[in-house]
Amino acid sequence: MIKVLLVDDHQLFGEGMRSMFTAEDGIAIVKVTTNGHQIPTILKDLEIDVILLDISMPQIDGIGVMELLKNEGFDLPVLMLTMHKEMKYIRRTLEKGAQGYILKDASKPELVEAIQKVSRRENYFHPKINNQIFDYLRGGKGSNAADLINELSEREIEIIGCLAKGMNGRAVAEALFISEHTVKTHRRNIMHKLGTKNTAELITFSIEQGII
Amino acid sequence: MIKVLLVDDHQLFGEGMRSMFTAEDGIAIVKVTTNGHQIPTILKDLEIDVILLDISMPQIDGIGVMELLKNEGFDLPVLMLTMHKEMKYIRRTLEKGAQGYILKDASKPELVEAIQKVSRRENYFHPKINNQIFDYLRGGKGSNAADLINELSEREIEIIGCLAKGMNGRAVAEALFISEHTVKTHRRNIMHKLGTKNTAELITFSIEQGII
DNA sequence: GTAATAATACCACTTTGGGGGTATTAAAGC
DNA sequence: GCTTTAATACCCCCAAAGTGGTATTATTAC
C-alpha cells in the first residue's frame, strides 16, 4: 500500500481524490492538506511514501513547498499534480527535484501508474508533458530554444524579471545596486542573445519560453 | 436521490467527485463529461436534476455551455463549480442564468448544501463569492483586475497583440491601416485602463491575465 | 435627442529605449 | 600563463515611448 500525502488548496478536489482510491488500487491518500506550511508537521506524524503536490496555492506555492522540503531535510518523491502545462512550471519544479509531473485532466489509471512509478523513485511524465518538453527542446526556427536560454546568465534573467514587472532602466539599476549603463548593456546583450527587437517582444518571448 | 451531471475537463477531478458521494448523501453523480458539446445527448439519455459546470474548458467553456443549454431548450438548474472567484466570471454566468456558484476550494458539506438548494431551484452562493459580490458592488466597476479587462475594446486587444509581437508604433499603424498617432492614443488608453507604467509591464500583465 | 463610448487623428514636449562603440575587473576553464 | 565569460561602466546619437493636451466622427445607449 502506497501512502500518499496530497497538497492542494481545492478542498473538493482533495476529498474527491481521497475517496477515489480503494484498497484494490494499492494506493491510499492518507492525508490531504490545503496549506503547504503544514507539511513538515504532517511528515513527522505520518508515514508517507509519495507527496502529490499542486502548484498554484495561496499560502505557499508548489515551488515554495519543494524548497521547504529541501531545507527541512525531507527526501520524499514528489509528483506534481496540476492544471498547468506551461513549460515555465514544468522546468521550475523539475529543477527543484520533482520526481514526476501529471496533469489534472489525466485519467485515474494514468495517475495510478504515475504514483507507482514515483514511489519507486522512477520518473513519470504525462504524455502531454512529454510533448511539451519535446516542443520546448526543439524550439524555434533553426536554433534551439533551450540553448538560447542556457546562454543567458543568472544576472540577465534577473534583469528580464525586473523589466517584466514594468521597471525601467533606472528602477532596475536602483534595485540591483548597479549603474543604469550596466542595465542598458545587459538589456542589449539579452536582446541580442534572444533575437528580439525590443523589450515588449523580449517579455513575450521570455514568458512563452518559460524563462520567467 | 438528486441526480447530477458533472461537466469538467479535469478527468481526475471528475472521477474523484464521482466516488465522493454515497447513497447516504442523497446525491449521485450519474455522469461525468469533459466535453460540453456532449451535454444535449446526455440529457436526452439520462434523467438529470442538476448540472455541475466548470468554467474553463477547452472545447467549449462554461459560458458557452449555458448558451447551448438555452438554445437547445433545456431548463435545468446549473450550479457553477469552478476555481475562478473573479467577478468577471461570476457576473457572466449569472447573466446566463446559473442557479448557483461554488468554488473548488469549498468543502463537501458546502457542496452538498449547494446541490440541494439548487435542485430546489433556490440560489446558492459560496460565502467567498458573497464577499466578492459585496466588494464589487461597494468598489464599483474597475475595482479589480478581472474587470479591468472587460473595459478593453476589441481594437485595444488587437493593439496589445501587435505590441507583444515586438511591433513598434509604426509597424502597428501599418498593419492596422491607421495612423501612428492613433496607435499611440490606443496604447495610452490601454495603459491607463490596466494601470501599467510601460509597454513591458503591459505585456506581462496581458499574458498573465490571458488577454492575449 | 442627448449622453456615452470607441476609434480615429493631431500637436508639443520630455524621458526612455535601442544601437554603435570601448574598456576594466574578477572568475572560471584549459 | 592564457583565454573566455560575466558583470561592470562609460561615450555618443537618434528613434521610440510616454505624457500633456484637444478634437472629430460614428455608433450605441438611454
Element order of chain A: H for helix, E for strand: EHEHEHEHEHEHHHHHH
CATH superfamily of the largest domain in chain A: Response regulator
Count of DSSP-assigned helices of chain A: 11
> What is the general shape of chain A?
elongated
Number of self-contained structural domains of chain A: 2
Based on CA atoms alone, the radius of gyration of chain A comes out at 20 Å
**Uncertain regions of chain A: pLDDT < 50 for 5+ in a row?**
137-146
Beta strand % of chain A: 5-15%
Using CB atoms under 8 Å apart, which protein chain pair has the greatest interface? A-B, 36 and 36 residues
Question: What class, by secondary structure content of chain A?
Answer: alpha/beta
In percent, how helical is the residue content of chain A? Answer: 40-55%
Q: Which fold does the CATH topology of the largest domain in chain A refer to?
A: Rossmann fold
State the oligomer.
homodimer
Q: Could you tell me the number of beta strands of chain A? A: 6
Would you kindly provide a brief summary of this structure?
Chain A is α/β, with parallel strands linked by helices and 212 residues long. Chain A has helices at residues 11-20, 39-45, 62-71, 87-95, 108-119, 127-138, 145-150, 154-164, 169-176, 180-194, 199-208; strands spanning 2-7, 27-33, 50-53, 78-82, 100-103, 124-125.
